[in-house]
């Protein structure tokens, strides 16, 4: 992999806690800081498109994500996304020729100790380098086909569907 395009859309992975408001809000994308701290050995560019909880991502937002990725020459694409509607966005991205796209996120904010963010990002980076052209989801230590996965909200994990 010569270059990695990272498209950020918000979601839990980028949430930060504001004490004075006693509230979580989506902050700056965390992935760049994470990758720099880890000292990765590849070039990456980050395009922050949205700062939304995935429950607030609209069909128009999904089309914007698709158009942005389609307009870039980069073959390898990682999308950070909220987990609640990650599957819907992945399905909209299907069919983009010449691209390997992996969506990932976190079930707790990247700034939290014990967050799954770094693990999921690492899994997604490995996947985007090895998988053939197509769209995938990297969560819970697995690579999922967006057509055959759902988020089990009660169990707070992804699982295969038939």
Automatic annotation (TrEMBL):
- A Gene Ontology molecular-function term? asparaginase activity
| Residue ranges constituting the L-asparaginase N-terminal domain according to the UniProt record | 4-152
User: Known InterPro entries for this protein?
Assistant: Asp/glu_Ase-like_sf, Asparaginase/glutaminase-like, L-asparaginase_N, L-asparaginase_N_sf
Which PROSITE patterns does the entry link to? ASN_GLN_ASE_3
Active site located where? Answer: 12 (o-isoaspartyl threonine intermediate)
Membrane-traversing stretches: none
Binding sites annotated in the UniProt record for substrate: 54, 83-84
Please report the name of this protein according to its UniProt entry.
Answer: Asparaginase
The organism is: Thermomonas haemolytica
What taxonomic classification does the UniProt entry list for its organism? Bacteria, Pseudomonadati, Pseudomonadota, Gammaproteobacteria, Lysobacterales
């Amino acid at each position: 992999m010569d270059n990695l395009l990272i498209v950020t859309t918000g979601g839990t992975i980028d949430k930060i806690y504001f004490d004075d408001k006693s509230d979580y809000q989506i902050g700056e994308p965390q992935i760049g800081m994470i990758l720099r701290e880890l000292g990765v050995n590849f070039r990456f560019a980050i395009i922050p498109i949205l700062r939304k909880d995935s429950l607030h991502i609209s069909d128009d937002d999904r089309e914007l994500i698709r158009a942005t990725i389609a307009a870039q020459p980069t073959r390898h694409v990682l999308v950070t996304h909220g987990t609640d509607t990650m599957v819907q966005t992945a399905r909209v991205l299907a069919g983009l020729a010449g691209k390997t796209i992996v969506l990932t996120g976190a079930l707790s904010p990247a700034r939290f100790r014990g967050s799954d963010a770094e693990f999921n990002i690492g899994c997604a980076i490995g996947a985007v380098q090895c998988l053939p052209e197509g769209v995938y989801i990297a969560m819970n230590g697995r690579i999922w086909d967006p057509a055959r996965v759902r988020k089990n909200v009660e169990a707070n994990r992804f699982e295969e569907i038939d």
